[in-house]
Amino acid sequence: MSWSSAQYTKFEAERNRPIGDLLGRIRAPDVRKAADIGCGPGNSTEALRYRYRHADIIGIDSSPDMIAAARKRLPALRFEIDDIATWRDPGPFDLILSNAVLHWVPDHTALMPALCARLREGGCLAVQMPDNLEEPAHSLMRDIAADGPWAAKLAGASRARTDVRDANYYYGLLRGRVAAIDIWRTIYFHPLAGGAAAVVEWFKGSGLLPFLAPLDPAEREMFLARYEEALAGAYPELEDGTVLLPFPRLFMVVTR
Ligand SMILES: C[S@@+](CC[C@H](N)C(=O)[O-])C[C@H]1O[C@@H](n2cnc3c(N)ncnc32)[C@H](O)[C@@H]1O
């Protein structure tokens, strides 16, 4: 499955909204060393740089296309191709930011405490993850994958993502190891011009990736046509052709 910075940034303003909300809850006054893990095309890193102008910031991402886009956007910062699951930089960090990434990384039970262990005392882990697998945009993706000539090819597609657990789970996992946990869930409502086709474009940049990667071009076209038709029933168009896309997200700011 390969990420495309061009497809992902088609909805950059909407995708940036939770970054601001997440950074807004970080109380660490003095951030000298920070990491943006799963930095994508550098949009979250740019927000981090804007907030902490003098920090030493590194961005890592497993996608070469995303890292190339991030380097182009912020040539003065350090970006490296790396996988969060095997990333070994011990820090210690004043801030680790991970926006819209960790739902792609397995084993949160081990991962979250391991990330907190790389924080300096008083440092923060700031995480936001889409919590939208029960939304029609995802259930329809799974339904169409299971009911088509591609069913065998797509049998494992939904396992590419890690289930995001609820707030109680992460709170229980981390309390006792850290000084404070601020955890909340928000549903954004994004108005997208262009009806169901715009919702397809949105998910082509993220959630659809594991469903489209195994398909050949003709299957991909057929899958997307069926998906768009199904979305049109689930997300009715307003009079001007706009659809309102509800998007639930889980946030946590953990202070060591
Ligand atoms: C939805 S984008 C988020 C980009 C950016 N952080 C933002 O705030 O918009 C998810 C990014 O996570 C990266 N990613 C997914 N799994 C990863 C992993 N195991 N290690 C590193 N990066 C990963 C993808 O390559 C992609 O760039």
What's the SSE blueprint?
Elements: H1 5-8, H2 12-23, E1 33-37, H3 43-51, E2 56-61, H4 64-73, E3 78-81, E4 93-99, H5 108-116, E5 119-130, H6 136-146, H7 167-174, E6 180-192, H8 195-204, H9 209-212, H10 217-234, E7 243-255
Parallel strand pairs: 1-2, 1-4, 2-3, 4-5
Antiparallel strand pairs: 5-7, 6-7
Helix pairs in contact: 2-3, 6-10, 8-10
Bound molecules: S-adenosylmethionine (SAM).
Residues 3, 15, 19, 38-40, 43-44, 61-63, 66, 83-85, 99-101, 104-105, 206 line the site of S-adenosylmethionine.
- Low-pLDDT stretches: none
Order of helices and strands: HHEHEHEEHEHHEHHHE
Radius of gyration: 19 Å
Note the quaternary state here: single chain
> At the fourth CATH level, what is the homologous superfamily?
Vaccinia Virus protein VP39
Instruction: Give the C-level CATH assignment.
Output: Alpha Beta
Shape: globular
Strand proportion, as a percent range, falls in 15-25%
Average pLDDT for all residues: 95
What count of structural domains?
1
Distance between the termini: 34 Å
What is the number of beta strands? 7
Q: What hetero molecules are bound to the protein chains? A: S-adenosylmethionine
Helical coverage, percent range? 25-40%
The CATH architecture is 3-Layer(aba) Sandwich
* Biggest sheet architecture: 7 strands, mixed
CATH topology: Rossmann fold
| Major beta sheet, strand line-up | 3-2-1-4-5-7-6
